[in-house]
Design goal:
Blueprint (H helix, E strand, L loop, with lengths): L1 H25 L1 E3 L2 E2 L2 E2 L4 E4 L2 E3 L2 H7 L3 E5 L4 E5 L2 E8 L2 E2 L2 E3 L3 E11 L5 E9 L5 E8 L7 E4 L3 E4 L4 E11 L5 E12 L1
Parallel strand pairs: 10-17
Antiparallel strand pairs: 1-4, 2-3, 4-5, 6-7, 8-9, 8-11, 11-14, 11-15, 12-13, 12-16, 16-17
Length: about 190
C-alpha cells in the first residue's frame, strides 16, 4: 500500500515538474535595459514576441499614459520639453559648491497632444531631497507653449548632481508625470 502511494506521489511530482519546465521554456523572463538602466519589471518573451509593461516604459520615456476603458485603448503621449536655466540673462549648467544663486527655469513645450491641467518644476539635491520651485494650473489648449518660473534663490550646499525636473498633470489624472530633466553640477 505504501509503495502504491509513493508511486502515485512520484508520478504526480514528475508531471508537475515537467509542466513547470515546459511553462518556463514557453514564457521566458528577460532583462530590459533602457539608456543603461535596468527596468524593475522584467519583460516576457514568448512565441518570438517581447511583452513589456507599458506603464514602466512610459515612465522611463518620461511620457503620459492614458487608458480608455470603453475602447480598451492605451495611448502614450511624449511631449517635447526643452529646459534652460538662466542666471540673470546667462544660461548655466554648472555652479560652485556653497554658492547661493538666483535663477529661473524656462521650458519650451511642443508636440503636446493631450490636455493637461497643471505643471510643476522641482529641484532634487544629490541626496534626492526635493524642493518645489513652482507649480501652477494651466489652461493652454495649444500643442505648444512656453513656461517660465519666477526667480528662485537656492544654495548648492554640497558637491554633486542637482536635477531640475519638469512634471505635467493630465486632465484625466491626479498624478504628476515626470516629462523632462536637466542636470546642474555643483563642483568644489
Amino acid at each position: 500500500m505504501k509503495f502504491r502511494k509513493l508511486l502515485i506521489l512520484l508520478l504526480v511530482m514528475s508531471l508537475w515538474g515537467g509542466t513547470m519546465l515546459f511553462a518556463d521554456a514557453a514564457v521566458q523572463k528577460i532583462r530590459v535595459i533602457v539608456n543603461g538602466s535596468e527596468l524593475d519589471d522584467a519583460g516576457l518573451f514568448t512565441d518570438g514576441k517581447t511583452y513589456l509593461s507599458i506603464r514602466q516604459i512610459a515612465n522611463t520615456m518620461q511620457s503620459i499614459v492614458s487608458w480608455d476603458e470603453s475602447s480598451k485603448k492605451v495611448t502614450v503621449y511624449k511631449p517635447n520639453v526643452h529646459m534652460f536655466l538662466f542666471q540673470d540673462n546667462t544660461i548655466f549648467g554648472n555652479v560652485t559648491k556653497g554658492n547661493r544663486i538666483s535663477f529661473k527655469v524656462f521650458a519650451q513645450i511642443d508636440n503636446l497632444l493631450t490636455d493637461i491641467s497643471a505643471v510643476k518644476v522641482s529641484i532634487f539635491d544629490p541626496d534626492g531631497k526635493e524642493e518645489l520651485i513652482q507649480s501652477e494650473k494651466v489652461s493652454n489648449k495649444n500643442d505648444n507653449f512656453w513656461y517660465r518660473t519666477d526667480d528662485i534663490n537656492y544654495t548648492f550646499s554640497s558637491s554633486g548632481k542637482y536635477t531640475i525636473r519638469f512634471y505635467m498633470k493630465s486632465n484625466a489624472s491626479d498624478d504628476w508625470k515626470l516629462i523632462s530633466e536637466k542636470t546642474i553640477t555643483a563642483k568644489s
